[in-house]
Amino acid sequence: MKEGNNPLGNIYVSYRAISTVAYQSALQSYGVVGLAAKNLAEGLAQVLVKDPALGVDVRYDDRAIQIDLFIIVEYGTRIKSVAASVSDNVRYQVEKVFGLPVSQVNVHIRGLRISNPD
Amino acid sequence: MSIDQQISAMEDGRNLAHADKLDGQGLKQLVEAGMTWLRTNQQIVNALNVFPVPDGDTGTNMLLTMQAAYAEIARSGERNAGKMAHAVAQGALMGARGNSGVILSQLWRGLARGLDNLETINGPALAQALGEARNTAYKGVVRPVEGTILTVAKDVAAAAETAVAEKTELVDILEILVEAADRSVNHTPELLPILKQAGVVDSGGKGLFFIFEGMLRYLKGQSLETPLASVQPLSSMKMDEIEDIEPGQDYEVVIDFRPASPLDLEHFYNDLTEMGTSIQLGEGEGMYRLHIHVPTEKRYSPIDYTMQLGTITKVSIENLMAQMEDIEKAKVSKLSLAPVEPGQVAVVAVSPGPGISRIFGSLGASAIVEGGQTMNPSTEEILRAIENLPTDKIIILPNNKNIILAAQQTARVTVKKVVVIPCTSVPQGLSAMLRHDQDGNIDQIAEEMEEAIREVETGEITVATRSVELNGVNVQEGQAIALHNGKLVASAQTVDEACLTLLEKADTEDRERITLFYGANISRQDVNRIVDGIRSRYPSHEIELHEGGQPHYQFIISIE
Which residue from B minimizes the CA distance to A112? Predict the structure, then answer.
């Protein structure tokens, strides 16, 4: 994917590496109780293969990274604030770990989990 | 609140204190108290935040959440405690801001569920509800991080269990809860390494502590509007800003000490106010730093006083008047750079002198690389400046032909997007600076800058270090020489002459503005005389003079 120039050679960062970091960061964000498949095909694949970065889509346009997150939020929280938190958290962690600029983090709310019916 | 209102509110609090149960109105008063005390101390909480993102300004976020919660019940006359709690939770949910705000809203939600429809809350009901609050909060995240507000909520819920077994009066129960919260907050650095590294406690946890403490203070009839001795984390103590010195404050005394037993902050603070003013207390790992301004006759009082409280590890006494003079001098030559945020475009400028650095800074440069005596910074120095900026869009102004290459090198080595503007002189660089827009598109800005530098005429005046003949100009060692856009165009006996000849060669007649930067190797007297000469020669031109402070060149001149 993206190569960073190093006097000794090139550095290639895979989409998978980035999506894994994004996935972990998302799960650590408050309000996120899971990540979801973005379509049926992916959902099916998930059952068959243990995907370490499900629900995260990473793209790169030669300048910066764009991330799409498909999350499940805990019912009873302010979804807007949770989404903003996740977005900030993921961007911060990815930029910190890889040193690559993140231009967009899109958060898609795929569902709510109801733990405590009010 | 007016004094009367405050007093009456304090009385209400004291009346509530000895009750053994709480109704809807009582709960409302406690919510207000918690919110008010958090508001009073919000800056302390903000100062504890370690990450630049994601939860900036925890104090403000939690306060906004509490304010939304209170707004929901502000006009409510509801007597049923459970119903009141549900309304609070609803308000908190709607107004939850930031990570900590959302968790706080979850705590209220759990508390409300725990209370259900209870008319009044007694000790055991409170303990059960706090447990429910903790459960709900923890449910909201898959990987809960300990050493945060969640941990404090957990510890308070645990303390509540034991508290209600021993005590029945609200004030006694809350006393135990506040103490548990305090202990839990102070323990957070042990659970979260990044807190320990930064030397702070968890901001969300501290915010929650203040909410509980506010409720306790209300029950004890203590003030909620004035912060307690403004104890701040050590790292955030601002000690280099001295505003007006009040009369009678002659010395600044700073004492680092370790108290033998926990400080009674209120007494400590009160005793200190008898000695002096401008009291600041910073808390570090097991130690405090006290800062106070005292009159000459009391200059040892803080030391004698603190000595009785524990072990003093360091003392510094400084004469304020003398300090003031130094600061005035320093203020004059302080370099202020434009702060930049991720996503914005930042400018890194290479500068030959401090005065010029200041000008670049005031025009919006975010980083300056000192060119030094040889005006030849290394690629590494430029790279460091680039990497230290929080954004990934950088424009470099090398301001010297030799540096353009080094700058282009850095563009190849960094992952950030770097555009090098090929400006070969300070006047070009400054003109480019004027086209800068932090929020603009980097390629567009670069284009405008490159256009701008083509329109600037640069003049440089210096003294020849050897004799040479160049471009048809005969130069003797020691003569003043003038360079126009980097090319030698004239030599003269004096710097005055060289300047005037340069201006002539640059067709200054047809231009409007002359800007001069005088260097470190010319006296102010000479500068003034030369500028006067230029003014009389070009009376209708706008002439600006700046202290550039650059080595070698007596003058750098920009003609536009």
Answer: B140
CATH number, domain containing residue B411: 3.40.50.510
Would you call B53 and A82 a contact, using CB atoms and an 8 Å cutoff?
Answer: no
- Give yes or no for a contact between B312 and B303, defined as CB atoms under 8 angstroms apart: yes
- Nearest Cα residue in chain B from A73: B140
Domains of chain A: 2-113 (3.30.70.1350)
How does DSSP assign A54-110, residue by residue?
TTEEEEE-SS-EEEEEEEEEETTS-HHHHHHHHHHHHHHHHHHHH---EEEEEEEEE
**How are beta strands A32-35 and B393-397 bridged, if at all?**
unpaired
Residue B53: per-residue pLDDT: 45
How many distinct structural domains can be found in chain B?
4
pLDDT averaged over every residue in chain A: 84
- Kindly list the residues from chain B whose CB atom is less than 8 angstroms away from the CB atom of residue A116: 109-110, 113, 136, 139
SS3 assignment, position B513: strand
Domain boundary among B439, B454, B469: B454
Confidence of residue A4 (pLDDT cuts 50, 70, 90): low
A12-43 residue pLDDT tens: 888 989 999 999 999 989 999 988 876 666 66
Element (DSSP H or E) covering residue B337:
none
In a shared domain, residues B39 and B79: yes
Instruction: Evaluate whether B138 touches B107 at the Cβ level (below 8 Å).
Output: no
Residues B71, B202: one domain?
Answer: yes
Among B279, B302, B331, identify where a domain stops: B331
* Residues B7 and B51 grouped into a single domain: yes
In A, what residues contact B, Cβ < 8 A? 2, 4-5, 7, 27-34, 63-64, 74, 76-78, 81-82, 85, 88-89, 91-92, 95, 99-101, 103, 115-116, 118
Residue B446: HSE in the Cβ half-sphere, 13 Å Cα cutoff? 16
Nearest CA in chain A to B139: A115
pLDDT of residue A108: 94
Helix (H, G, I), strand (E, B) or coil at A33: strand
Taking Cα atoms as reference points, which of B79, B137, B139 lies closest to residue B111? B137
Question: How far is A3 from chain B, CA to nearest CA, in Å?
Answer: 9
Q: In what order do the strands lie in the sheet with B310-319?
A: B231-233, B277-283, B288-294, B251-259, B310-319
Same-domain status, B303 and B338: no
Q: Which domain holds residue B195?
A: 3-226
Coil vs helix vs strand at B30 = helix
B221 with B365, same domain: the answer is no
| B408 and B284 belong to one structural domain | no
Confidence band of B138 (pLDDT split at 50, 70, 90) = very high
Residues β-bridged to residue B468: B475
Contact across the interface for A81 and B103, Cβ inside 8 Å: no
* CATH label of the domain that carries residue B99: 1.25.40.340
Is pLDDT at B320 greater than 80 in this prediction? no
User: What digits encode the pLDDT tens for the residues A104-113?
Assistant: 999 999 999 9
Q: CA nearest B94 in A: which residue?
A: A78
User: What are the structure tokens assigned to B130, written together?
Assistant: 């706090």
- Report how far apart, in Å, the C-alpha atoms of B310 and of each of A87, B256, B291 are: 47, 10, 16
CA B353 to centroid of chain Cα atoms: 27
**Whether residues B322 and B346 fall in one domain:** no
Tokens describing residue B553: 């060149």
Instruction: Quote the pLDDT of residue B232.
Output: 56
- B25 and B42 inside one domain: yes
